[in-house]
């Protein structure tokens, strides 16, 4: 598995925005005492944040999708 960039443009911005939204959701859920659901939101936020920063998505690679161009 190579680590070439396969996430770019609007896809990258969408993933970054989704990471921010999931972070806010997780924070609200933690304060509401819903720790399990908040933990799932945190994992999603970290995943989408990594995709946006690294410009790489493993699922995109498996499916042959490249939005970096």
Automatic annotation (TrEMBL):
Ranges where the Inner membrane protein YgaP-like transmembrane domain occurs: 4-68
What is the superkingdom listed in this entry's lineage?
Archaea
State the species of origin: Natronomonas pharaonis (strain ATCC 35678 / DSM 2160 / CIP 103997 / JCM 8858 / NBRC 14720 / NCIMB 2260 / Gabara)
- Official protein name in the record: DUF2892 family protein
InterPro entries for the chain: YgaP-like_TM (IPR021309)
Residues that span the membrane, as ranges: 12-30, 42-63
The entry's keywords: Membrane, Transmembrane, Transmembrane helix
Taxon lineage? Archaea, Methanobacteriati, Methanobacteriota, Stenosarchaea group, Halobacteria
């Amino acid at each position: 598995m190579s680590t070439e960039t396969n996430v770019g443009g609007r896809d990258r911005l969408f993933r970054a925005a989704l990471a921010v939204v999931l972070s806010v959701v997780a924070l609200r859920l933690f304060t509401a005492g819903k720790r399990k659901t908040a933990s799932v939101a945190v994992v999603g936020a970290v995943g989408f944040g990594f995709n946006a920063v690294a410009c790489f998505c493993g699922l995109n690679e498996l499916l042959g999708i490249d939005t970096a161009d």
